[in-house]
Write a structure and sequence with these properties.
The chain is mostly helical. The chain is 79% helix and 0% strand. Helix 3 runs parallel beside helix 5 and helix 3 runs antiparallel to helix 14.
Length: 408
């Protein structure tokens, strides 16, 4: 399938692989700040918040800039600067410089995502977009798996080598993308697209996602759903430790199973979505997500944790392509860069509240109550998205026949 895609899409998929492989760096930042710099936990928390805040800001600004800046250039420049700042981080800069470097790494990591997603989806044939989105997820997860193996080896030589590894991967990807942009991009700035949008809408603000009520309700549901997902990265492990007597190795096994299943099953699930429709896949995915953690209340045996991870993975396989395709369709003829910027910012920003809120609820009420809260939140997401997802397909991007086949 990859061979049949345009060259520009192939390069963006390669850049996705390199960027996700380098993204493992954020998992080692807290240990780097603790063991190399000797910072206290409060300082480490602020530095990690600076990275996360940079990702959110970069995703939105990067998406908005793609309305004016050619996306080929945007992805190449983002990878280039992310690589430069990652290499700087490997040099153990002083604290004053860390306050600049850490958020800058986040900003350019975030800025890469909306332009990259836009190029992958827009460069693919309409009838293959569901499968291409699935392929994009597969490539991303392969990068994460590769990163885990390589970073686990490199960290034995020192944390600086992990950051150097990220920087070199991003720099290599940027050279490929910028080389392609030099040969094929019309120009750095795309003023023609802005004029065309203004002409089509009559008023540039009409195409703004901030005036699109259905889209904003969709994003609210997305944020709540991602807050449920995020319990995988904190309270899930604590609960297994306390109630299933499962050591850290079980957490590693379960996450490896999740990544492997995404790589193996994402494309078949994308074909299933093509056959059965976006709306059905969305509703089923949300129901699975809402009920996943409730399974942990059924007993203390490790089998319930395995089943929970399987259900969460099934929800992830369904919802990720559904959300992406819905936003791509809704943004047709509108300010697509800002739509994708908000979508990407929400995807990246959930890590600022999901684990923290979950940990607070776990400490205050216990794990069994937290899973019921997750179930209730899933029900709220189901109600928010029940009609909203289909509304995102009513206009303007597809023909009535395509809307019927994809959305319903």
């Amino acid at each position: 399938m990859i061979r049949t895609l345009p060259r520009s899409v192939q390069l963006q998929l390669l850049a996705t692989l390199l960027n996700s492989a380098g993204g493992i760096v954020k998992l080692f930042m807290p240990l780097y700040f603790l063991e190399v710099y000797g910072y206290d936990f409060s300082t480490i928390a602020w530095l990690m918040a600076a990275y996360g805040g940079g990702c959110i800001l970069g995703a939105y600004v990067g998406g908005a800039l793609s309305e004016r800046l050619d996306s080929q250039w945007a992805t190449g420049i983002s990878l280039l600067l992310s690589g430069v700042f990652a290499v700087t981080l490997a040099l153990t800069p002083p604290f004053a410089l860390l306050l600049i470097v850490v958020p800058m790494v986040g900003i350019f990591d975030g800025a890469f995502r909306p332009a990259n997603l836009r190029l992958v989806m827009e460069g693919s044939p309409q009838e293959l977009q569901a499968r291409v989105q699935g392929l994009h997820r597969v490539v991303f997860n392969l990068g994460v798996a590769l990163a885990g193996l390589l970073a686990g080896t490199l960290v034995g030589f020192g944390y600086g080598y992990v950051f150097l590894f990220q920087g070199l991967l991003n720099l290599f990807g940027s050279f490929l993308l910028l080389g392609y942009a030099l040969k094929h991009a019309v120009g750095l700035w795309q003023l023609e697209s802005i004029a065309a949008t203004q002409k089509d809408t009559g008023d540039f603000a009409v195409g703004s996602p901030w005036r699109d009520g259905f889209f904003l309700v969709f994003i609210l549901g997305q944020l709540l759903a991602l807050g449920i997902f995020d319990q995988m990265y904190g309270t899930f492990g604590i609960f297994l430790r306390e109630h299933a007597d499962a050591g850290p190795h079980w957490i590693a096994y379960l996450f490896s199973m999740n990544a492997l299943l995404v790589v193996v099953l994402q494309l078949p699930v994308s074909r299933w979505i093509e056959r059965h429709g976006i709306v059905i896949a969305s509703r089923l995915g949300i129901l699975l997500l809402g009920g996943a953690f409730l399974i942990l209340n059924m007993g203390s045996h490790i089998i319930w944790a395995v089943l929970t991870m399987l259900v969460i993975t099934a929800a992830e396989l369904l919802l990720t392509p559904v959300w992406t395709l819905s936003v791509m369709n809704r943004s047709q003829g509108r300010q697509r860069g800002k739509y994708l910027g908000i979508f990407s910012a929400a995807w990246l920003g959930h890590s600022l509240y999901g684990p923290g809120v979950g940990a607070w609820l776990y400490g205050a009420y216990g794990g069994f109550t937290l899973w019921w809260i997750c179930g209730g939140t899933g029900l709220l997401v189901f109600m928010l998205h029940y009609s909203t997802v289909s509304k995102l397909w009513t206009e303007p991007g597809t023909s009535p026949k395509e809307q019927t086949s994809l959305a319903n």
